[in-house]
Amino acid sequence: MNTPEADEPRGTSRPHRSRTRKLLLSILSILLVIAVGCVGFAGYLAHRWNSGTQQLNVTELQSPNAADGPGTNILILGTDTRSEDDPDQAGITGTRSDAIMVAHIAANGSGVQVVSLPRDLWVPIKGHGEDKLNAAMSYGGANLAVSTIHDLIGVRIDHVAIIDFEGFRGLTDALGGVDVPVYKEFTSYGRTFPEGLNHLDGDGALSFVRARYPFADGDFQRIRNQQAFLKAVISKLVSVGTLTNPVKVTRAVDQLSPYLTVDDGLDARGMVSLLTKLRGVEISEFRFMTLPTGDPGTSEDGAEYLTVDEDALSELRTAFTYDTLDRTIQKMD
């Protein structure tokens, strides 16, 4: 008795199977090439990051005096290397931080809260009595800045990143520009920013984050502008148009890294670990606030400063300690 297989003419199925096998092998080969290419590109990008950034051993990050708490806290310091002839730099010596932010990544990865600390806050600085918050970096570099800020907010600092404002120019251009909202027209450094959504190139970004004198509330509006710029950059960085474009990603790293100093825990491997914590965070889950301040004051040498709002600071310290910053920001907003 003949089986169906026996009735099938010889050679009928083999070419079909052969073609299928070849097709599968071709697909697997393509996927393997893509995988190898991705690994190779990741390694290349890691090399560019490690060779481009300056890395520091910040001993204060391991300070036993800093309270432990859930989540990850990253101190972001913005510095400006413009000539001392620039009016915004008058009277400033050493490296002072013009922007001071603490970014908190929630322990469960549900969001990122960024708290700006006004640079003119009058605070205790170890070994230097009381002074403006931004003087800590001038007196003792990243270690003293970290120590001063974790004393202020009451929890440890896990990482520190110091960026020169000049890096914003190349980064913005590498991303094809960024869009920021302007709620009232102003002019700064010869450039006018009309009310509404403004598309900034690199030069425009620099003028935008530096502007202080056009505003009645001076540094507070500059802080809001810096927050808006940071949010716009993050939005552009995580967009599909950037993440799927190796050329754009490489240019962004190349343009930013020479102006970036990080602790040695933020090498390429550390950045991958950090970005893994952020993998599920949407841009809408980034929240920003500025620490409220008390009355202004004047130091013995005539310098004007801002006092700390102790009630607001106490609430902020509790929020950092118990990982409830998201609710606290919504309440203070």
Automatic annotation (TrEMBL):
UniProt keyword list: Membrane, Transmembrane, Transmembrane helix
Listed InterPro entries: LytR/CpsA/Psr_CW_biosynth (IPR050922), LytR_CpsA_psr (IPR004474)
Keyword Membrane: yes
DNA damage recorded as keyword: no
Signal sequence extent: none
One Pfam family recorded for the sequence: LytR_cpsA_psr
Start and end residues of each stretch annotated as Disordered: 63-92
Domain Cell envelope-related transcriptional attenuator: 96-237
Organism superkingdom: Bacteria
Transmembrane residue ranges: 23-46
Family, per entry: Belongs to the LytR/CpsA/Psr (LCP) family.
UniProt-recorded name of the protein: Cell envelope-related function transcriptional attenuator common domain protein
Organism of this sequence: Corynebacterium terpenotabidum Y-11
